[in-house]
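BUG-437 | component: ligand-complex export | severity: low

The export step for LLP jobs runs without errors, but we want the raw record kept on the ticket for reference. Input record follows.
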Amino acid sequence: MGQGVLTAPRAADRDALLSDAGLERRDGSLLMAGLPLSAVADAVGTPAYVYNAEAVRARYASLDAALGSIPHRICYAVKANGNLAILRLLRDLGAGADIVSAGELERAHAAGFPAERVVFSGVGKSASELRAAIAAGVGHINVESAEELDLLAALAQGSRRTVSVGIRVNPDVTADTHPYISTGKSGIKFGVPTDQVAAAARLIGAHPALELTAIAMHLGSQLTDTAPFREGIGRLLAIVDEVRAAGAPALRALDVGGGLGIRYGAEAPMSPEAFAAAVVPMVAPTGLTLYVEPGRFLVGSAGVLLASVLYRKHSGGKSFLIVDAGMNDLVRPSHYQAYHEIVELEAGGRRLATVDVVGPVCETGDFLALDRPLPMLEQGERIAVLGAGAYGFVMASSYNTRPRPPEVLVDGGRFAVARPREAVADLFRGESPTPLG
Ligand code: LLP
């Protein structure tokens, strides 16, 4: 399946995985943009997230160029990796931001995104979040239910601003990805069902402080094929016709969401060119601006998680590498059974064993890889977990009172800490052993 559940890469894919990340091997050492990752690990310790700025730029440029024949805006999905350094990088490239909380609104603002380049999505925006978005003047707010629209209408009324609204439609399209991240199917919590869209559009049209500017969808994440996009856009186009016929003079955007997949192992994700070839001819005749909201595609391959081997162990016929990064640092393997390629920072041409790479957290589900062909590394040797730039640090927790790792940016032959390692004291700041006195 698209999510790459436990699918090992064919040997040939390892080169592609390295090159997607801007990684190469020289004399056995793994380099990111020409910089030895061992030097980064020496400087900041492990576990640590390391992001390659140039790889993010290359991804952005490839998508921007592929969509170049029609008016478009790439709104980066902040949830994938909200580090301010990553956000600033994408802002400087001309990206907008797709946000899902008031917290992400503040992040986008702190990174310097102009409010009109921000799109606010999400199924459960609170009144205070909607108020903050109205006050900031975001580009459009994608509503996901009739009740949310009623609340937005009431808040807009009192704000003396005209609020641009998008309707996020649930197009009822099945996407081949992990069920937890499939978001465009009927019967799940996301989007306004197609048969409720006309009423929502009427309400917006009749309201003095609202204008309908966008029709939107998001089908799911880690999609590797264009078919669901074609199907979903087909449904959106029918809705565009319908709402235009009823009168929607301010409609200017068709937002087709995020979801472009990346290579984690053996999958062959669609290229930006293939995506554009499927989408652009469908959208161009509408004259609408095409919005896309990629997260993973822009940053996923550009990041690695560095970890060190703490211990080796043989037990019950299995071999374990116990490393200093666990499910609290990178939850994707244990939460989605996601495959992440693991490579040594210093390759030694050693014999491969079959190992489980596990973390220090007290759960049997705390693993980064199962039954993986890897050398039985020595204590203190370091590894890079690939494809960790999206939904890595942002999903990290301090479970087991483990401070979250630092985030490092590599650019122009240099590296710098973009967020320091948390201190243990950060983890219980504000707690009181005697809250009742
Ligand atoms: N737009 C909306 C409305 C979304 O809900 C999402 C992701 C995106 C854009 C960006 O999707 P992307 O281009 O990154 O696929 N934690 C999961 C992924 C959850 C995605 C949720 N929504 C994972 O680690 O696979």
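Assignee comment: Attached the raw record above. The mean pLDDT is 95.
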